[in-house]
Amino acid sequence: MREVILRFRKGVETQRLAGVVVEDGDYAKVYAGMTKCSNYAHDKALQGGIAVPDPDELLADIMELDAWREGIEKRVKPGLFMRPT
After folding, report:
1. Would the pLDDT of 80 be above 60?
2. How far apart are CA 80 and CA 17, in angstroms?
3. What's the rounded Cα separation, in Å, for the pair 79 and 19?
């Protein structure tokens, strides 16, 4: 979003965050998603007997993430005029 972080680029361009609007619900979504994903990362699934999600669940998670991203991007443009730079 707003190219704050890009793959293969060193560093984070925090000045690009000026137009980003973050709401409490965004934090909750990120926390829930990171918590769910961390169950499958770093070999926890194999060690803890945690089943990897089936394709339908994975697709539903991806679609929910994409819808959330689209909602955030809609808030970015109005946010550019809400904060002084």
Report:
1. no
2. 9
3. 5
Q: How far apart are CA 38 and CA 35, in angstroms?
A: 5
Contacts of 85 (CB under 8 A, 6+ apart): 18
CA distance 8 to 39: 26
Distance CA 85, CA 80 (A): 9
Q: What is the pLDDT of residues 52-69, one digit of tens each?
A: 788 999 999 999 999 998
Single-letter amino acid code for the residue at 41: A
* Helices within the chain (DSSP H only): 24-38, 44-48, 55-79
pLDDT at residue 4 is higher than 90: no
Q: How far is CA 26 from the centre of its chain?
A: 8
